[in-house]
Design goal:
This protein is of the alpha+beta class. The protein has five helices and five strands; from the N terminus they run E-E-H-E-E-E-H-H-H-H. It is about 30% helix and about 10% strand. Strand 3 and strand 4 form a beta hairpin. The longest helix has 16 residues. The model has no long low-confidence stretch (mean pLDDT about 95). This is 2Fe-2S iron-sulfur cluster-binding protein.
Length: about 160
């Protein structure tokens, strides 16, 4: 199969039962996405598939043949961090760092959803674009757990990145 990962077309031969997460980590040497729960509950394996957030531990790699995947390794430019990554550092939005790649990919996808005007479960007025309040950020990031409880810093970092 062939998949575009972080802007580069990559060919890989693998068992049809292999998950996207295992393909990224074991076959393409992209170890940013982490294997946390292997059940889609923690979000540490979150990547962007055709621009949408997905839990890569739940997706068979063969289903992404010909599609585009962005991992945490693809968020930054060649010489500098993305504004989101810089905000995570500035706000100390990580402690152990294990969940950080999934948090970053989820935040990038969430910010794109907001820019497209997609509401969340806590969006009050569906006739106007959602204001990116702390409650909106928390709701939209709810699928990504942080065992170190760096949530206030993550929310602050996402809020800052949204304003830049």
């Amino acid at each position: 199969m062939t998949v575009e990962v972080n802007g580069v077309s990559r060919g890989v031969t693998l068992d049809n039962r292999t998950t996207l997460l295992d393909t990224l980590r074991e076959h393409l040497d992209l170890t940013g996405a982490k294997k946390g729960c292997d059940h889609g509950q923690c979000g540490s394996c979150t990547v962007l598939l055709d621009g949408r957030r997905v839990k890569s531990c739940l997706i068979f790699a063969v289903t992404v043949d010909g599609r585009s995947v962005v991992t945490v390794e693809g968020l930054a430019g060649p010489d500098e961090l993305s504004p989101l990554q810089a905000a995570f550092i500035a706000h100390d939005a990580f402690q152990c760092g294990y969940c950080t790649p999934g948090q970053l990919c989820s935040a990038r996808g969430m910010l794109d959803e907001v820019s497209r005007g997609w509401p969340s479960a806590v969006t009050g007025d569906l006739s106007t674009p959602a204001a990116l309040t702390d409650a909106e950020i928390r709701e939209r990031m709810a699928g990504n757990l942080c065992r170190c409880a760096a949530y206030p810093h993550i929310v602050a970092a996402v809020r800052e990145a949204a304003s830049s």
